[in-house]
Design brief:
It holds the Pfam family FemAB. The chain is of the alpha+beta class. Helix content is 36%, strand content 27%.
């Protein structure tokens, strides 16, 4: 029987996600409310009457023309390693084309390679190695090669090569495996610096608590300070308020705000997200003052322990680059995260399919000019 794709209610979309151990929070119906400036749609893939996949599709309009880029961040949610993509993707493309899409961008959540702590540390110590691409992975997913080839044969464009963060979602992430592990197991797997900093924070009297939506202004003040220090443009307070309201209304345990305090001063604040058995460190902020009390380590350790208590298989520290070059300003990110004892994972990346090449090219140029 042919695979069909059609619009489904958000409730059916959410019910499907609850049957899975892992799906990106960017594919939850709540995320549509967070990205309210985009038109959105919940889609379902059906094998006969059986729902076999879902997607949150965000439609971004091209200026002055009523045509859209259809964007599926870290999705669709399909059984990518088993699905016949020649049967699954054409009806999806046909559907979004009918909705006015001139092109499609999606991010198949397929892991290609993994590098463990030892491989990363050795690479960081070797001056002749500048990228994870030069390092022998600890695990390679053979099925990812089939997905790659199938996408190419169906006309999709592979990820663009290059360093740093590509537009959209990061291709490289850092994850801490938790399945079957206790907090003591995880603590023992951390490096000496992380263990020492966690103890230092505790000895200094740093306390970590879960906050509420009323604590968002405090978080945002610290986040804006972090943005200024690190040179990125901060999102407005209203964005985080919408995010917490939307995600907590979908599931009270979907998102939590954490605050690390020392003698009445906020020294670090973060957001934690969960879908099934996958948890994420989403946003983080830290104070320039009192860095010596190690609030960032304390708050991460609390979130990791809460992830274990929630039955999580993985604690995801999100994006890194593939760089292990000491001269690269991004390398500090992987150096901080590798101390947890986790692993770097490479995803298949985001893929594009132009439907109308003229409009697709025009939109691409528009986005590049916007920077």
């Amino acid at each position: 029987m042919a695979i069909t794709v059609r619009t489904i209610p958000a409730s059916q979309h959410l019910d499907f996600l609850t049957t899975l151990r892992s799906a990106s929070f960017l594919q939850t119906p709540a995320w549509a409310k967070v990205k309210s400036e985009w038109r959105n749609e919940s889609l379902g893939w059906f094998d006969g009457d059986t729902l076999v996949g879902v997607a949150l599709v965000l439609y971004r309009q091209i200026p002055k023309v009523k045509r859209f880029l259809a964007y599926v961040p870290e999705g669709p949610v399909l059984d990518w390693e088993k699905a016949d993509l020649a049967a699954y993707l054409p009806p999806f493309v046909s559907h979004v084309k009918h909705q006015g899409a001139f092109g499609v961008r999606m991010g198949p959540p397929v892991i290609v390679r993994r590098w463990g702590t030892r491989a990363i540390k050795d690479a960081l110590a070797d001056e002749s190695v500048t990228s994870l691409r030069q390092v022998e992975p600890d695990e390679t997913n053979i099925a990812a090669a089939r997905v790659y080839n199938d996408l190419r044969s169906l006309g999709w464009h592979p990820p663009k090569s290059g360093e740093g963060f590509a537009a959209g979602q990061p291709e490289y992430n850092f994850q801490l495996p938790l399945a079957g592990r206790t907090p003591d197991d995880v603590l023992k797997g951390m490096n000496q610096l992380w263990r020492r900093n966690i103890k230092k924070a505790d000895k200094a009297g740093v306390t970590v608590r879960r906050g509420t939506i009323d604590d968002l202004p405090a978080f945002h003040g610290l986040y804006a300070e972090t943005a200024k220090r690190d040179g990125f443009t901060p999102r407005p307070l209203a964005y985080f308020r919408t995010m917490m309201e939307a995600m907590q209304s979908e599931d009270p345990d979907r998102i939590h705000l954490y605050l690390a305090e020392h003698e009445g001063d906020l020294v670090a604040s973060t957001t934690w997200v969960r879908v099934g058995t996958h948890t994420w460190y989403s946003y983080g902020a830290s104070s320039t003052d009192k860095r010596e009390v190690r609030g960032s380590n304390a708050i991460q350790w609390r979130m990791i322990q809460d992830a274990i208590a929630a039955g999580a298989d993985v604690y995801d520290l999100r994006g890194i680059t593939d760089s292990v070059d000491k001269k690269d300003p991004h390398v500090g990110l992987i150096e901080f995260k590798v101390g947890t004892g986790g692993e770097a994972v490479e995803y298949l990346g985001e893929w594009d399919l132009p439907i109308n090449r003229v409009l697709y090219t025009a939109f691409d140029l528009y986005m590049k000019r916007r920077g």
